[in-house]
Amino acid sequence: MAALSAAEAGCSTTLLERDLEGSSHAANTLFEGMAARAGIAVEESYVIRALDGMRIVSPSGFAATIPGKGYFIDRKRFDEHYLRLAEGAGVSILDGEALRSKLDGSRRTVACTGGEIDARVVIDASGIRSFLAQESDLRPMRHPGDIAWAMEAEVEYPALGDENLFSYWIGSMAPGWKATFSPAGGDRATLGVFVRGHGQNVQSFFRSFLGRFKSEKAKEYRNIEEMKILSVRRGGDPICVLPGEITADSLMVTGGAAGQSGLVYGMRAGTICGAVAARAVAEGDVSAESLVEYEARWRSEFYWEYRLGRSALLTLSGMKDGDVDLLVRGLSGKALISGDSFLKKAAFSGARVAMVQPKTVFGLLRNLLRG
Ligand SMILES: Cc1cc2nc3c(=O)[nH]c(=O)nc-3n(C[C@H](O)[C@H](O)[C@H](O)COP(=O)(O)OP(=O)(O)OC[C@H]3O[C@@H](n4cnc5c(N)ncnc54)[C@H](O)[C@@H]3O)c2cc1C
Fold first, then answer.
1. Which of 14, 237, 240 gets mutated to test ligand 1 (max ligand atoms within 8 A of its CB)?
2. Residue with the nearest Cα to atom 27 of ligand 1?
3. How does pLDDT run along the chain (371 residues), one tens digit per residue?
4. Nearest residue to 49 via CA among 64, 65, 63, 28
5. Is the dihedral of CA 220, 223, 228, 234 positive or negative?
6. Which of 84, 95, 183, 301 has its CA 20 to 30 A from that of 308?
7. How far, in Å, from the CA of 178 to the mean position of ligand 1?
8. What is the pTM for the complete model shown?
9. Atom 37 in ligand 1: which residue has the minimum CA distance?
10. Which residue minimizes the CA distance to atom 28 of ligand 1?
């Protein structure tokens, strides 16, 4: 998206990608509300299936349903769609790996497999390893230790993929974030755990979640023990790390690399980033002072939402399973989403939480103040 918006604004733009097949890309879920907020129109061409919302499940199995259209997407077609848009806008797409970059006056040279790219502005969108940024001594995530480490499997069982809600379990089975069930239609679905604070190897959490999932589903699917695991992906989700230093002379960082987690919000961040890069190039000033407009624009659109999200996850991490049960049980059956603006929705949901578990609201506020 950064390359696309820079090219649309008239910049000569090159996109370097070491995995054009996208075999390393795991994310498969989009929610309509978040996409609309990020200004992204979800395209039918890459949607496998539309679902009606999500179930939040507590450790003892209480569930609260949150309505809201969500999509299971075909990641290959999704990547292909945006690559073609970029190409159509004039971006040259290069298959290769960035090895290092060097600041040279008001330009940066990127050494990559197959040669060198000489650029006025380099945008690092390389995901959580934020390779070029780190190498240039930027710390693009404010709380890198809070990355949620994930293990997600594609599974197969007759009709398992036909359920109409995404399910998210919270509590000690996936400390700090969630365990997920995403029905992909027909016999396909994904099951995953996203865990914070327990290192990068989260296999033991995955195994116990798998056991729990099968026993919960045994009533509906008689032979669920025979569910097949087709493939497994691992990775890090920078869900609540917040952006840190994301601009320097001739250098910008965007997307997961900058802690701007979530596909659609990352896409919007990339769009802002590319537009600011193009403006800076056109004005002939690619200094950090000129590029910092990107941070200001990102903050005005998203900062408080990410701060609230981080605060909510920290609060959740500190709750005992019994308290999570009480919270979810209290919320079950109540409308959780109201109003159109983000702040109205947050205030409404906050009021609901305050009614069922006032101490959670103090936790949220305390974590919000922590930054
Ligand atoms: C298992 C898992 C499931 C997830 N599910 C969802 C979901 O359903 N919905 C959602 O919204 N978010 C999800 N997330 C979070 C989401 O994946 C990230 O927010 C998002 O991928 C960030 O996008 P990005 O393009 O910035 O980074 P990435 O997706 O990490 O892409 C970085 C790209 O840079 C390339 N690259 C890296 N280094 C180099 C180099 N040196 N040279 C050239 N190219 C390089 C990589 O090949 C890659 O294509 C999930 C995360 C994980 C780990």
1. 237
2. 127
3. 999 999 999 999 999 999 998 888 999 999 999 999 999 999 999 999 999 999 999 999 999 998 999 999 999 999 999 999 999 999 999 999 999 999 998 899 999 998 999 999 999 999 999 989 999 999 999 999 999 999 999 999 999 999 999 999 999 999 999 999 999 999 999 999 999 999 999 999 999 999 999 999 999 999 999 999 999 999 999 998 999 999 999 999 999 999 999 999 999 999 999 999 999 999 999 999 999 999 999 999 999 999 988 988 898 888 899 999 988 888 776 655 655 565 566 666 666 666 666 667 667 666 666 76
4. 28
5. positive
6. 183
7. 18
8. 0.93
9. 126
10. 127
Q: Which residues line ligand 1 (CB under 6 A)?
A: 16-19, 24-29, 97-98, 125-127, 131, 150, 152, 192, 233, 235-237, 255-257, 261-263, 266
Q: Whose CA is nearest to atom 30 of ligand 1?
A: 127
Measuring CA to CA, how many Å separate 362 from each of 275, 329, 368? 39, 19, 10
Q: What is the CA radius of gyration of the chain?
A: 21
Under 8 Å between Cβ of 252 and 121: yes
Q: Identify the residue whose tokens are 């007759």.
A: 158
Q: Which atom of ligand 1 is nearest to the CA of 128?
A: 30
Orientation angle between helical segments 342-356 and 358-370, nearest 10 degrees: 130
Nearest CA-CA partner of 138 in 242, 257, 255, 235: 257
